[in-house]
């Protein structure tokens, strides 16, 4: 018997932006009833391929078929009619509308007497959509804009799951979700697979891909390098396929142990939304801050960076009192910040890379009254770009033209450009490929070897355990006493409600997990 026709095939997909190829004949074939991973380094062409399937970007050439029949996708409407649904960070949501209105966007609202919008019915239906993912903390009536990133993603996912589709395309859906929320999403994705529909899943989280997905297509430099069952390939081989070289270890070893000198002290310092905070960091120390989204992690780093009112207590940076009146004052004091929402807060996307990097360092660059020239700015930016392995045509390329992961690298390049004494990183590896992650961790190690202290806010627990000297898991605006990664597994088990020790947990932490798992 002939095998069933693929649910979707996109063959020889080609797309260039202003003559620069993003896809050079990539192939993607998704069978019915499978969860298919689309993998590749930052800039490999994954988002471009997805945008072509969504009808948002027109390919230069492509042969697209569903169930073996050629189809044309020339608008978001045609993609929708073919049963394709997209969950993508950048696709339509309206923050000023309610959660329920966002869930029903583009669909017919429930009506009374066939004319009037049935608002109660709309909210009820929206609640049912949220219930499917077990979400009970989001009110369908509240404005979408009042929710955090993770909750907004849950709303997007609920909306996409509202009607039965053929193929759900998800771009980094778990990037802003907690471990518990991710598990609930995976359960729903497996239900989708069992019903015969399929999922195209883009993620840089390899452990997730290896446990969830059946097959993978790997893109490199706009070409499909390989495609096949994940059961036939090891984690390390998948990494090598993606980046074209071997990554020996996930985390670089510390170059030196943290020093004895104190780098930063918070003494009962107070800011709205947080209980009084006290802790100290040594030079070269990396403090990890974890917690469910909205537990106060952002408030903490923003206040240290001069972005929030300080209502009590004090901070010390090195030997001097530190009370930045603004982020600019924090930069001047040697504190650098990589914000969580890079497009909204970290970048001027319609300006070139070099301007984005030098923006915070103009004074430093225009040394001793010399005028800063675009040439010197570009040279400075090119050096830093090489340090963070930025994939771009050059320092003059506009940031909007970069892939998501490369935009993140621009923000990081700016943060390290001024040789900071205290580096505040919020989700620095979100959306960043596995090779570049290692590079970012290496940069953290280099900085700490030079004596910088780092506060790393992350929802990536392996990363926290792999890179941090001490970890605090925040709860309801409180920063508990800091613990070592080894004892942190205990807290992880109670907060993230896991059934057993996850595969990534180092052996040193496993026994502690087993003893305390709920
Ligand atoms: N609007 C655009 N204008 C110019 N070039 C673009 C544009 N969008 C993407 N590109 C380029 O196309 C290439 C592929 O980018 P794409 O966003 O598809 O990569 P990706 O695999 O999704 O990466 P990431 O994992 O970082 O999101 C990159 O070199 C990027 O710079």
TrEMBL record:
Stretches assigned to coiled coil: none
Domain ABC transporter: 8-246, 245-501
Short name of one Pfam family: ABC_tran
CDD domains (alphabetical): ABC_Carb_Monos_I (cd03216), ABC_Carb_Monos_II (cd03215)
GO molecular function: ATP binding; ATP hydrolysis activity
Keywords, in A-Z order: ATP-binding, Cell membrane, Membrane, Nucleotide-binding, Repeat, Sugar transport, Translocase, Transport
SUPFAM superfamilies: P-loop containing nucleoside triphosphate hydrolases
Family: Belongs to the ABC transporter superfamily.
The protein's name: Sugar ABC transporter ATP-binding protein
